[in-house]
Amino acid sequence: MVALKDFQVIGKELSNDQAYGKVTGRLRYCGDMQAPGMLYMKLKHSTVTHGILRSIDTAAAQALPGVRAVYTWENTPAKCYDRGRVGPWEKVPNQEPLFSRQVRFIGERVAAVVADSEEIAEQACRLIQVEYDPLPFVISVDEAEQESAPRIHPDGNVYPAEPVERGDFSAIQGALCHTSQSHISRMTHLCMETQSCRACYDASEGMLTIWTGCQSVFGVRSTVAELLDLPYAKVRVIKAPMGGSFGVRQETLLEPLTAYAALDLQAEVRLVYTREEQIVNTMMKHSVDAQVESRVQPDGTILGLSLSCRLDAGAYLTVSRDYASTMGEKINKVYRIPNLHFDGRAVCTNTPINGSFRSWGSCEVALCLENHWNMVARDLGMDPIDFRLKNVHEPFEDELVHHISVGNAHFRDCLLRGREAFRWEERKAECREQNRTQRRYRYGVGVALASHTSSFFPYRVDVASTTAKLQEDGSLILHVSVHDHGCGTIMALKKIASEVTQLPLEQILLQEADTRDCLYDHGCYASRTVYSLGTSVETCCEKLMGILKTRAAAALSCTETILRYEKGFFFQETDKSVRISLPQVYEHSIRVLGQDVFCSVTTNAQANPGVPAAHFTHVQVDTYTGFTRVLDCLSVHDVGRAINPDLCRGQVGSGIQQGMGMALCEEIKISPKTGQALITNFKNYEVANAVDMPDYQVIFLEEPEPDAPFGAKSIGEVVLVPVAPAIVAAVNDALGTQLHHLPLTPAVILEALEAQRS
């Protein structure tokens, strides 16, 4: 194992590549981009829950000076696409056209105006007159599942997920049975930057170029090219800087319509969402209802688990069925459970669309299971940490669902290090004493343990490709399809390249994904960037150095075996004065050998190491107001190796803040009568603000993962996963309750206390 001190840049406190541009305001997000003759698009939205457009009058809008085009279902392709598709080979429902004559939720787009300015486009949208023939609708999943429910789509409302059966849960005998139910409400992703897209059609070349802050340029290209019947080679998608995603930019949202307008008008068009559109017209986090049943021996050994879940997909299915299936694939990431049952389904309702969200099912699974295990431990009279220690996977143990190793995953060490650093036993005693002597405030501690993925394996073939090109002066250009969410993944990959080549970071250029310059990649989600793309970068740079060594030996007329390399120079081991620089190697390669200096590699992940995360929380609950305050927390993460430790700590902080919101306050309320989103701005959306954040401590366990780039695993999504269940556990510990309905707002707390008293 290489000691951290032996690295040049890995593990060092070096900043995000985009930091200077962000703090100076010089970084240009897609919504900042301007170009001569650029046109601007604005949208008009449905005002009915479910209906058929009887008529749409655009005459006044089209007559407004400065309006270039008005688009509706009448003059755009009826061809349907799926916003969640990445590759053309995926089987998807294809339920959405650019505009549908049948609108399925309040806020669905019914028209678009392209004009010389955003102000003109907005004014024109207000002039469009729409008449609807209402249709019956369903708001709740309970209604939508009924046989007599109105059909939102021709194939119905209910879409079963892929079930999981391992062992025989129903045959377990002689064990204690425990059951629990959970509800998780809708959330918005809360990105600081709203969604935007810029598209330009160059008629002279027949080339359509799209700039977008997305998570898969090849996914966007696939969807747009097939929708518009263009060759893939004539659609170029460039990843623009991104002001946060948390999953909302994984799906193809604005790009099809913006691209269609650019192609139709043979012009450059930009569409930027308002905050209301960002909340209502992208997608939200699913609301989830789940039932958990377990079989546990009296000594705490888990024998079996059954999880049933139901997701509200909203008006279109998109990724919801796969999202539910993913929950089933992740139920065995943490604990040794010999018998498993999972069934799930996604249900369409006449409400705004739900879709991808940070951790893709891991946080939902953790909320359902971790609170269930806390309840089981309480019933057994066991400490919740001791209960977990009895059942966690050990390093390199196989998980049951996919029969693959969890890798060098240290669940046990996360719990033990956290218990000591958090002063678990002392705090439990302190809480008991405070609760005995005080009337108004109640105190509790909670713990949750979780994991997530580091690659697609074995769900799909995880392909990652890199091209490295040495330049005449010895600097390096790398092409790899990376999508930085604003969290420093470009810097992480540059550090990997720098460590292999021993070149300074400032001599390495690595830009974001571009379908013209990069080889194929699925996209940056599943927390695969550092593990999968990092492996590709490391392998490619090692191959390039091998090529350079061969050509350096040719230039020096010696064998490769006696050559050594250090910081831009090859030299003979026996005589260091016999040396050649990288620029000289390049010159010899071009002028003498007649060969350029580059290489490309494609790697496939053959493992998916777990990323254990234990979160400990101390809370105070005001029994008079129902308000919960997080006093202190500790996160312990097994990251393998922290490439960017300062940014890893920032990720943990973001996960704590987002998890606090999930547990205590964040919720998009939906009208039970109309399905309309009742919260469409930050003014009314309750979040955990900076003043609500507790002091928090972070411990990174750095036990390098075999076959990972310098031992590094994922960190970006798992930071969220255990936070909310740990907070819920602490609240239940403080109050002696078994609350599982999120968020735990003051009203929920007060209602539980009233029920407890009566």
Characteristic key phrases:
single chain; 758 residues; alpha+beta; seven-stranded mixed sheet; 18 helices; 30 strands; globular
Description:
The chain is of the alpha+beta class and 758 residues long. Helices cover 28% and strands 24% of the residues. The chain is built from 18 helices and 30 strands. A hairpin with a 5-residue loop joins β15 and β16 (302-314). The relative contact order is 0.13.
What topology emerges from the helices and strands here?
Elements: H1 19-24, E1 39-45, E2 51-57, H2 59-63, E3 67-71, E4 102-103, E5 109-115, H3 118-127, E6 129-134, H4 141-144, E7 158-160, E8 164-166, E9 176-184, E10 196-202, E11 207-212, H5 217-227, E12 235-239, H6 255-265, E13 268-272, H7 275-281, E14 284-285, E15 288-296, E16 302-314, H8 320-329, E17 339-348, E18 354-355, H9 362-380, H10 384-389, H11 411-421, H12 424-437, E19 441-450, E20 463-470, E21 476-480, H13 489-501, E22 508-510, H14 529-556, E23 563-566, E24 569-572, E25 579-581, H15 582-591, E26 598-604, E27 613-622, E28 628-638, H16 645-664, E29 695-701, H17 723-735, E30 741-742, H18 746-757
